[in-house]
Write a structure and sequence with these properties.
The complex is a heterodimer of chains A (208) and B (326). Chain A is mainly α and 208 residues long. Chain A has helices at 3-18, 27-33, 37-54, 64-76, 90-114, 118-131, 157-161, 177-185, and strands spanning 142-145, 204-206. Chain B folds into two domains: 2-196, Lipoprotein localisation LolA/LolB/LppX (outer membrane lipoprotein receptor (LolB), chain A, Clam), CATH 2.50.20; 212-323, MucB/RseB, C-terminal domain (Phosphorylase Kinase, domain 1). Chain B has helices spanning 2-38, 120-123, 311-319; strands at residues 41-49, 52-63, 66-73, 80-84, 87-92, 97-102, 124-134, 137-146, 153-159, 165-171, 177-188, 207-211, 213-215, 221-223, 231-241, 255-264, 269-276, 284-288, 291-298, 301-307, 321-323. Chain B is globular and about 55 Å long. Classes of the chains: A mainly alpha (208), B alpha+beta (326). At the A-B interface, helix 6, strand 1, helix 8 and strand 2 of A face strand 1, strand 2, strand 5, strand 11 and strand 12 of B. Strand 1 of chain A pairs antiparallel with strand 18 (284-288) of chain B.
Chain lengths: 208, 326
């Protein structure tokens, strides 16, 4: 089979995926295919086609900035994972499935936006935010757990597609983290403390 | 039966020995605490955190209870801290900021205990091992192992001659060192006034900052579940600056008030910060060296938990915070 017809086949499958008429076993393949930008464009086009078929008023191209912002917002959301409802009625099945697919998509879009690996993203954050202030620049931070609210029991597409890592690390990107750390260290024997009354401008007020 | 009796006999013989060792080790902690106040010395210590090293020079003097300490950071940004009893003045020459605040922690290196009177042997096992040698001094090693998985262990080495702590390591549940701090050079003896003076003589054009912390009365916030032995040692309201390093001249509006509850079992400390939800926050839990930090939302509040304990302990606190109307 030529590459071209492969592509056509893939486009067809993405279209089928958009319509929710794919086979269960195809989902992994489709989700990983959607990691590629060109395929994501197809995904968006097919959605737009679907929208136009429903109403001409929906024939609006969304700006690239909108998509970027959406991804950003999605990245900030807690990822909830839903188990597939195999035994429920057709329509409910569809609904749950669509939700799972959406979750899975989020999982794909997030790493794409953030750099394919949550841990890698968080490392510069740690380095930049709460470590660099101590002049520590360790590149490998250990992320220990996923956010609360993530259902670890649910075998979901998002888990399957995330490089086999079922605890998708979430990062803390709060710029205030330095302040909390420094405020805590004032009461702790943290090994930082001996060299650390310093980090961020914590609890300070200019003296008049 | 005979075997059992024999075993009982053996246990009777052995257990007092264990008890003695534990008592002796805990007494040593007290001696370390006292020595950190009473000893006159100048030394260089290094702090190692994963693959990072930071060294500092420390000069300490006690004259009949009048305590002076000077710490000069030798790596990275130039920083100096001069402590006179409970008052700490820090010097930041690059930003020309002078900060004055009250000391909050009693357990900074080379001290070790957060507060006195903790029943440490209920939560930790103590062992004394052979002597070691650190910074040219002979020292006695104390191994402190947690009895549960909700706190870390410590290895401390106290100078045989005067009990000054020369080495402190924090170890995880697999006995791996998470971070450590140790003297690399040390001299005991007389400290002159000039050794404790700040290196910056003219600070007239520097900006002076003062810490603003208010002791809180019962706020109504409480933590229902935490590792055994932890108790609340402080409850304060403080201003947190949402601004990042390098922008010390930002406006007042960046400051917001948070409630800080501090818990300790005598060795480990955990802080819980509570504030009304505002702006963007990202829930999660993160570990760096011995420090674990979590952020989570509870109703209309944002909760941050920070401590030198395993993630499971942080999670436990984070999940059990509640507000009880008075």
């Amino acid at each position: 089979m030529s590459t071209n017809s492969n592509n056509e086949k893939l486009k067809e499958q993405i279209s089928v995926f958009v319509d929710g008429e794919h086979e269960d076993q195809e989902i992994d393949f489709l989700l990983s295919a959607l990691r590629l930008e060109e395929n994501q464009q197809d995904w968006e086009i097919y959605h737009q086609i679907g929208d136009v078929l429903n109403s001409n008023e929906l024939s609006i191209g969304l700006s690239g900035a909108f998509n970027d912002r959406l991804r950003e917002r999605l990245a900030a959301e807690v990822t909830y994972a839903y188990p597939k409802r195999k035994n429920s009625g057709q329509s409910r099945y569809r609904l749950a499935y669509a939700t799972a697919a959406m979750v899975a998509l989020t999982a794909i879009l997030v790493p794409k936006f953030a750099g394919h690996d949550g841990a890698e993203v968080s490392a510069p954050y740690l380095t930049g935010q709460f470590v660099a202030t101590n002049n520590l620049t360790h590149p490998k931070a250990t992320l220990v757990a996923a956010t609360s609210g993530q259902n670890q029991d649910a075998a979901t597409p998002s888990n399957q597609t995330e490089s086999g890592n079922d605890q998708r690390p979430r990062m803390l990107r709060d710029p205030q983290i330095d302040s909390y750390l420094a405020a805590h260290q004032r009461y702790s024997k943290s090994m930082y403390s001996a060299v650390e009354y310093e980090t961020g401008p914590v609890n300070q007020e200019a003296e008049k | 039966m005979r075997y059992l009796l024999g075993l009982l006999f053996l246990l009777n013989v052995i257990s007092p020995a264990f008890a003695d060792e534990s008592t002796e080790a805990q007494a040593l902690l007290q001696k370390i605490q006292t020595a950190s106040k009473k000893t006159d010395y100048v030394g260089i210590f290094v702090f190692q955190h994963e693959d990072q090293l930071i060294s500092s020079r420390i000069t300490h003097r006690d004259q009949a209870g009048d305590e002076w300490e000077k710490i000069e950071k030798l790596d990275g940004h130039r920083r100096e801290y001069i402590r006179h009893n409970e008052e700490i003045t820090s010097y930041q020459p690059d930003t020309k900021i002078l900060r004055i605040e009250k000391r909050q922690a009693q357990d900074m290196f080379p001290a070790v205990l957060a507060f006195n009177g903790a029943h440490l042997s209920d939560y930790y096992r103590f062992r004394l091992t052979d002597t070691a040698r650190v910074a040219g001094e002979e020292c006695r090693m104390v191994i402190i192992e947690p009895k549960d998985k909700l706190r870390y262990g410590y290895r401390l080495c106290a100078a045989t001659s005067n009990y000054l702590m020369l080495l402190a390591q924090t170890t995880d549940l697999n006995n791996q060192v998470l971070e450590q701090i140790a003297f690399t050079s040390l001299m005991f003896g007389r400290i002159n006034d000039s050794d404790l003076k700040p290196s910056f003589s003219n600070t007239s054009d520097w900006k002076t900052m003062r810490g603003a912390v208010a002791v809180s009365t019962e706020s109504g916030w409480a933590v229902k579940a935490m590792p055994a032995g932890f108790k609340k040692i402080r409850e304060v309201r403080r201003l947190i600056n949402s601004n990042v390093e390098g922008q010390p001249h930002k406006q007042q509006s960046d400051l917001h008030e948070v409630l800080q509850l501090v818990f300790s079992d005598g060795l480990a400390t955990i802080s819980v910060f509570v504030e009304p939800l505002s702006g963007e926050h990202h829930p999660g839990i993160v570990q760096k060296g011995a420090t674990t930090i979590s952020g989570s939302q509870l109703g209309n509040f944002w909760i941050t938990v920070v401590g030198e304990v395993p993630a499971a302990a942080i999670q436990l606190l984070s999940d059990s915070i509640e507000y009880k109307a008075k």
